[in-house]
């Protein structure tokens, strides 16, 4: 199965997480507008990515003859539900400059927790899951 588009989306999301880290270090209040725009932009990529997985990847994997991959797929889907809920809460909380101004430490705390989970999840997909999918 060709999953190049999903891998490109992962790279985009990781780039946006890195950009948020840079902006946060430079000052959340000072860069509130760009941080909010990056959160919104990243949310769009994440929504498209999740939709692609839900509409194409997971249904495809339900039909394969590889029980290990099927089990891994189900586990990834279940785990992602919690991560998505946390990310959606994060993105709603920090999607405008006004919400970020004078909330530097709160944003950093939230970002460290939520974005680390997103990043770690994508790393596991890239290293453990996607290589198996590409062999199909």
TrEMBL record:
Domain of life: Bacteria
Domain annotation Hemerythrin-like: ranges: 3-133
InterPro entries: Hemerythrin-like
Pfam families associated with the record: Hemerythrin
Name used for this protein in its record: Hemerythrin domain-containing protein
């Amino acid at each position: 199965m060709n999953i190049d588009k999903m891998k490109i989306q992962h790279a985009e999301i990781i780039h946006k997480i890195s950009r948020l880290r840079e902006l946060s270090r430079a000052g959340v209040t000072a860069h509130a507008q760009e941080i909010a725009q990056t959160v919104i932009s990243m949310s769009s990529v994440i929504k498209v990515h999740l939709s692609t997985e839900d509409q194409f990847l997971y249904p495809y994997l339900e039909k394969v003859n590889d029980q290990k991959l099927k089990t891994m797929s189900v586990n990834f889907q279940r785990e992602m539900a919690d991560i998505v809920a946390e990310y959606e809460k994060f993105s709603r909380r920090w999607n405008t400059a006004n919400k970020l101004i004078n909330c530097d430490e709160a944003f950093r705390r939230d970002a460290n927790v939520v974005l680390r989970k997103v990043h770690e999840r994508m790393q596991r997909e890239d290293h453990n899951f996607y290589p198996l999918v590409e062999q199909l």
